Design the sequence.
């Protein structure tokens, strides 16, 4: 027998600069159907893009026999505002200005739509299906091309006065002119050091400064994956890069702990594939830098959501938050 | 005619290292009676101290004819835990270890007791009676002997997983060995620079480094008040001290804004008597350092609560939060 709760489904949409992924998800976090065929960059007109999403959703609902069971659509998209449902001035998307994503997609699909940025979606995904199940105070830090964050306090995502709270990738870690330029136009941001891109920049800097031999010297465009591979092969410079990156990240986390005293900080995204190479120096730096009041209280964890599923699950989890009936 | 709501009263107790203040407060924030006669340091036994508070409360209730109208007691005390009602390992109080303040005082008085630290009490006071009335997302920064903070998100005070969240005086502003020693045992904390004590330390440092004449050179133990008086007299070194202090505080606030995107940050406490001398560089530094997403959104304000009343009002406001009937 299928109960009413088990019948409810949600749809997760993850809009990225390159591709857009869509999935139908049940209450246990199983993805019943998925589509990764929409190339975001192929649509010069925003409404055409929303039409494409709506068409895929309609096809998936029919194919899975999910008519009447979809409770909501959750969308993770860069620079999107939970309060308004708009994407606002996104750097990495083809369309400029303010885009009424939630309104447009809910009108076309007849399903309520909730929108937030990918890091916030990741936090809700962790709370609904992942490592943060049952936690009421935690922070998710996404370590990918950039550094993002989703903050949960008293069981609620922190959106702030404008819908954009939780930009912890842009706290300043190195003040003054020696701080690295960040994509945001400011200097010394956490993101400029502790993203995948930041790791690659640290590699380039260290290879210039240090004379020591390294297998990284043979490569042209070093990526964080190269640094990881070299570190796993025992390369001393590569190991040092993870040590530096983890230490700075841990110093930042110690400050975040002073803010909201979370039960856990969960690391998520590409860079966490480095596992203990990253996690060990992070934990050491947290322990060294955190205020005595908080010592040993906050767990530092790596997300247990599968990389390939996490974006869809995170976005879909947002739809469970909606109380609107369909 | 007195309505039921108007009949309700609360009691605010502010426990400081030197003195303890008690007031009976109505729903408008008027203090109907006050007592500042308890010398905290005079009680070597904690229970004797709680007895003294209870005796004063009993006397004040009788004197004002408030029997049956007291809805709760709110207490602001250093290192106190909202969840447990205990004071835990307070540096500045005569008693060591974990002290069951709320349990003991509520048993003796027969009135429900809520406890939190003074900065959290200040934030609730601002929300109930002060500058933050009607705001759901704001941060109060207390600038006194130390730097404390009370953070409100979605209309709720942030206590974190352990009851101690909101220690923004201990985010690290100067990393490494050149950071000033802080009272917490770590280096480079905001508190070591932007408290009243920090201002005095900056003065001592600058007078050593800079050859320029200053009226501060004639003084023995420079306080932040001396620096303020000198600055108002046009003393260039004193003006520079406020410029430096405000700039660093503004840099810190820009990071706090990236966390919770508050509608306002409210500065509170002794150092704010410097007014625009402090506020102008703070605002400039926030504007220069804040992420573009948040530019111009967060108001930087000085508390409008009277200094002499604020501690009692802040503590009393905590008691309105309690839903327990008396």
Sequence:
């Amino acid at each position: 027998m299928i109960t009413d709760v088990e019948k409810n489904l949600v749809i997760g949409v993850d809009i990225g600069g390159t591709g857009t992924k869509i999935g139908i998800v049940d209450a246990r976090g199983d993805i019943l159907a998925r589509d990764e065929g929409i190339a975001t960059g192929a649509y010069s007109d925003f409404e055409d893009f929303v039409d494409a999403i709506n068409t895929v959703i309609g096809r998936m609902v029919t194919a899975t026999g999910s008519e009447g069971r979809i409770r909501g659509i959750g969308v993770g998209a860069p620079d999107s505002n939970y309060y308004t449902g708009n994407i606002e001035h996104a750097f990495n998307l083809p369309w400029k200005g303010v885009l009424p994503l939630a309104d447009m997609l809910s009108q076309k699909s007849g399903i309520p739509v909730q929108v937030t940025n990918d890091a916030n979606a990741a936090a809700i995904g962790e709370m609904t299906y992942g490592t943060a199940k049952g936690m009421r105070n935690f922070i998710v830090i996404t370590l990918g091309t950039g550094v993002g964050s989703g903050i949960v306090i008293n069981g609620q995502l922190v959106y702030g006065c404008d819908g954009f709270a939780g930009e912890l990738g842009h706290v300043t870690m190195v003040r003054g002119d020696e701080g690295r330029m960040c994509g945001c136009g400011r200097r010394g941001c956490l993101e400029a050091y502790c993203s995948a891109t930041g790791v690659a920049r640290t590699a380039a800097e260290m290879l210039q400064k240090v004379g020591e031999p390294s297998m990284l010297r043979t490569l042209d465009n070093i990526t964080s994956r190269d640094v990881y591979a070299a570190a796993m092969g025992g390369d001393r410079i590569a190991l040092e890069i993870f040590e530096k990156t983890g230490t700075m990240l841990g110093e930042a986390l110690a400050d975040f702990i002073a803010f909201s005293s979370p039960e856990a900080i969960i690391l998520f995204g590409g860079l966490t594939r480095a596992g203990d190479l990253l996690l060990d120096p992070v934990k050491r730096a947290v322990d060294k830098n955190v205020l005595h009041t908080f010592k040993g209280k906050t767990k530092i964890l790596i997300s247990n959501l599968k990389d390939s599923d996490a974006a869809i699950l995170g976005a879909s989890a947002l739809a469970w938050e909606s109380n609107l009936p369909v």
Observations:
- The interface with chain B takes residues 136-137, 151, 153-154, 156, 158-168, 170-173, 175, 184-186, 251, 254-256, 258-263, 289, 291-294, 297-298 of chain A (CB under 8 Å).
- The two ends of chain A are 22 Å apart (CA to CA).
